């Protein structure tokens, strides 16, 4: 199964171009205050998958070939893949909690576990403690399952197609790093508006790349080690479903959390994730690049 160099160009142009097109209502309207933001954010996540479809269409490859090359199965060891899925499903919130604890320890975050002041004024007089419990439980269950749909839209592109393509060309280590940069900069239509890190404005576009490179090594390793895209999908999904926002649920309203420093997506979280990103490939190395996940030869 071989690819053309132009496939990477086509994939990136489609994923990036459609991302900017999708975000136009924010740039021509009220920015992150726009009522379009939730819909734009979800729609944007499907643009990498459309990039895969574009490369597939021009290749004329069979469906089964593309599915195998992009990791849509459970890989050579179903047991390993399912164990990895379970590990990231349960482990990601624990890593997020550890990042919060360390953020408090180093003075980067103030929490209010007794009063949950960030949750005051909930509609209908909802008890903040009950709301917190519901958010955590739903985030780990139905929230992760629902969020897995748009997460697949990203992961089929970034880890399913792009990462094996890059590791074949550059090797595992550089392929992981380059894919993290491409993934991070793709968020620019939102991060240039201050998304995720509103306190630093457009600099968020560059700052977020630090997170995507580090976290990208982890979920990229999941893809390469399992031979399946699904552990990466679940890891991305459970992160989006509540692991990032957990810092706001327990934060102190008198000193609101700043994601530049606090939580799993802040500087403290980067340190935690970096330890994992270094440890995993050393303990369980991927000894060769995955087969190229680009354009198979057209069916004859």
From TrEMBL:
InterPro entries reported in the protein's UniProt record: MmRce1-like (IPR042150), Rce1/LyrA-like_dom (IPR003675)
Record GO terms (molecular function): endopeptidase activity; metallopeptidase activity
Key word Membrane present: yes
Transmembrane region(s): 7-30, 36-56, 82-110, 130-149, 170-188, 200-222, 229-248, 260-280
Domain of life: Bacteria
Biological processes per GO annotation: CAAX-box protein maturation; proteolysis
All copies of domain CAAX prenyl protease 2/Lysostaphin resistance protein A-like, residue ranges: 142-241
Entries under Pfam families matching the protein: Rce1-like
Alphabetical keyword list: Hydrolase, Membrane, Metalloprotease, Protease, Transmembrane, Transmembrane helix
Descriptive protein name: CPBP family intramembrane metalloprotease domain-containing protein
Protein source organism: Spongiactinospora gelatinilytica
């Amino acid at each position: 199964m071989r690819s053309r160099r132009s496939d990477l160009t086509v994939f990136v142009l489609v994923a990036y171009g459609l991302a900017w097109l999708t975000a136009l209502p924010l740039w021509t309207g009220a920015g992150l205050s726009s009522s379009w933001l939730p819909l734009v954010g979800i729609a944007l996540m499907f643009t990498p998958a459309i990039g895969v479809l574009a490369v597939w269409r021009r290749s004329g490859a069979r469906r089964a070939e593309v599915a195998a090359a992009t990791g849509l199965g459970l890989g050579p060891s179903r047991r390993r893949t399912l164990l990895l899925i379970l590990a990231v499903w349960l482990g990601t919130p624990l890593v997020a909690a550890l990042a919060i604890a360390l953020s408090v320890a180093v003075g980067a975050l103030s929490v209010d576990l007794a009063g949950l002041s960030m949750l005051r004024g909930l509609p209908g007089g909802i008890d903040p403690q009950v709301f917190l419990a519901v958010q955590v439980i739903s985030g780990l269950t139905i929230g992760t399952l629902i969020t897995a749909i748009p997460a697949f839209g990203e992961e089929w592109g970034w880890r399913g197609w792009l990462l094996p393509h890059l590791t074949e060309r550059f090797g595992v280590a550089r392929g992981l790093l380059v894919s993290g940069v491409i993934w991070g900069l793709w968020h620019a239509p939102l991060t240039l508006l201050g998304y995720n890190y509103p306190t630093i404005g457009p600099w968020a576009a560059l700052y977020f790349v630090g997170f995507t490179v580090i976290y990208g090594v982890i979920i990229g390793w999941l893809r390469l080690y399992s031979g399946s895209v699904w552990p990466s999908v679940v890891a991305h999904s459970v992160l989006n479903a509540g692991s990032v926002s957990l810092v706001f649920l327990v934060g102190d309203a008198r000193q609101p959390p700043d994601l530049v420093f606090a939580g799993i997506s802040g500087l403290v979280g980067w340190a935690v994730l970096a330890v994992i990103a270094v440890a995993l490939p050393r303990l369980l190395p991927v000894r060769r690049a995955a087969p190229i996940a680009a354009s198979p030869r057209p069916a004859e």
